[in-house]
């Protein structure tokens, strides 16, 4: 014969109180999470960080040698001006690399920039020495350079990229990938063996996040 257990009104009342507290704590926790999320969204929308601005202020092509086996030896010295346009947001540049490109072909290896912090509306000069030692290039490379020599200018493309973080007060965001693309029209010497060129005016760059 099975035993029938009948709970007293006191036990039922205690159970309902525990259930009520659980539901109340759950609602309180959800309200807290929603409030924190709403606060972050409000701060983000209010401050709305603008992407950093870059410009190419100087570039020297000290070497541009192409061997008979289509291996390129290059040496480029350049300076980038980095600006943080935000009045209340700092930027941590955790990773940053720079390389040179010509007509869609990479002509130097990556040059890595040490991490740095950029304060509100601050500017920084970033210098890099780009080199390429025996980089293979397409058969059309020599033809493209010779054609540009005839025109008397060399279209240098400087690309940079990496990861950054935003800093608002004591709060620091997660990492965001950024890419920079700079195009400079540079005068080019008569010979491909050893060319020395310099840009005299800054070249504005495009930045994507």
TrEMBL record:
It comes from the Eukaryota. It is a single-pass membrane protein. The chain crosses the membrane at residues 28-47. Coiled coil: none annotated. Keywords: Membrane, Transmembrane, Transmembrane helix. GO terms for cellular component: plasma membrane; plasmodesma. GO terms for biological process: defense response to other organism. Pfam families: LEA_2. Residues 79-182 form the Late embryogenesis abundant protein LEA-2 subgroup domain. PANTHER family: NDR1_HIN1-LIKE PROTEIN 26 (PTHR31415:SF20), OS05G0367900 PROTEIN (PTHR31415). This is Late embryogenesis abundant protein LEA-2 subgroup domain-containing protein.
């Amino acid at each position: 014969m099975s035993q029938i257990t009948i709970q007293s009104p006191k036990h039922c009342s205690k159970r309902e109180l525990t259930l009520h507290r659980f539901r109340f704590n759950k609602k309180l926790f959800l309200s807290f999470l929603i409030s924190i999320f709403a606060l972050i969204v409000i701060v983000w929308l209010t401050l709305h960080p603008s992407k950093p601005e870059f410009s190419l202020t100087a570039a020297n092509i000290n070497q541009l040698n192409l061997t008979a086996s289509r291996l390129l030896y290059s040496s480029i010295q350049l300076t980038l001006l980095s600006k943080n346009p935000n009045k209340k947001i700092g930027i941590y540049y955790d990773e940053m690399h720079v390389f040179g490109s010509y007509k869609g072909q990479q002509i130097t290896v990556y040059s890595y920039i040490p991490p740095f912090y950029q304060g509100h509306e601050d500017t920084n000069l970033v210098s890099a020495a780009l080199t390429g030692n025996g980089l293979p290039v397409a058969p059309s490379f020599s033809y493209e350079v010779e054609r540009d020599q005839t025109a008397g200018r060399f279209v240098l493309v400087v690309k940079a990229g990496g990861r950054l973080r935003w800093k608002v007060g004591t709060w620091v965001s997660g990492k965001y990938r950024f890419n920079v693309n700079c195009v400079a029209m540079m005068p080019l010497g008569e010979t491909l063996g050893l060319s020395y060129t310099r840009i005299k005016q800054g070249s504005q760059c495009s930045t994507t996040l």
